[in-house]
Amino acid sequence: MKLAVLLSGTGRTLDNFHDAISAGRMRGEIQVVVSNVEGVLGLEKARKYGYPAHHAPDNEAINRVLSGYDIDLVLLAGFLKLYRPPENLARRVLNIHPSLIPAFCGTGFYGMRVHRAVWDKGVKVSGCTVHFANDIYDDGPIVVQKCVDISGCSGPDEIADLVFAAECEAYPEAVNLVAEKGVDYFWNRAGGAG
Questions:
Q1: Would you state the pLDDT for residue 191?
Q2: 113, 121 in Cβ contact below 8 A?
Q3: Contact (CB, 8 A) for 171 and 130
Q4: pLDDT tens-digit map of 147-191
Q5: In 3D, which of 117, 92, 94, 123 has the Cα closest to residue 104?
Q6: pLDDT tens digits, one per residue of 33-54
């Protein structure tokens, strides 16, 4: 799979992709990394890894960058905006969310906001969900979910650490499943959701 990575921050998930691909645990090649935020650490890491790295502030600019590459799948990796892909990539955008969808998801639920809400509610398990993205936050067909026991956690930061460790397994696994089964398998299985 030829991959584009969209990010907005430190590039922790990009680190995971790079390591997983290098170790043969993730089927794919990163063609380009794009950030909607200028000067973030994620772009520095991309350059260090040898990936073309671009700042593009909005959907139109991002899609212009992506049009210069042959892309099979767009991976949202801590990308904090609703991404609207060009038509040829409309069903080929994966996202990871730091909860077990449909819990703690949708508009306003991202990053530590999710983990604080999970902590405040007192739930005993959390996790992460890799899903295809559409025009609604956290709504597209689910590819992989990983459950994490958080009953012994002492706060949202500890929950975040446990969930991120699960994300590091789940996202490469999801990319591998899409490479194996094809994009349409998941959209058809979800009844054409989105």
A1: 57
A2: no
A3: yes
A4: 999 999 999 999 999 999 999 999 999 999 999 999 999 999 875
A5: 117
A6: 999 999 999 999 999 999 999 9
Residue 162's H or E segment, with its range, is: helix 156-181
Kind and range of the H or E run holding 73:
strand 73-76
Compute how many other C-beta atoms are within 10 angstroms of the C-beta atom of residue 192.
Answer: 10
Taking CB atoms within 8 Å and a gap of at least 24, the contacts of 168-172 are 168/16, 168/20, 170/96, 170/128, 170/129, 170/130, 170/144, 170/145, 170/146, 171/13, 171/16, 171/17, 171/75, 171/77, 171/94, 171/96, 171/130, 171/144, 172/16, 172/17, 172/20, 172/25, 172/26
Higher pLDDT, 193 or 48: 48
Q: What angle do CA 38, 87, 101 make, to 5 degrees?
A: 70
- Identity at 47, one-letter amino acid code: R
Backbone angles phi, psi at 130, to 5 degrees: -100, 125
Least confident range of 58-72, 87-101, 129-143, 144-158 = 129-143
Q: Is 115 a catalytic residue?
A: no
What count of residues does the chain have?
Answer: 194
Q: How far apart are CA 95 and CA 170, in angstroms?
A: 11
Closest by CA to 144, choosing from 191, 177, 106, is 177
Tokens 């490479």 map to which residue?
A: 179
Q: What is the pTM of this model?
A: 0.93
Q: Tell me which of 18, 55, 97, 115 is the catalytic residue.
A: 97
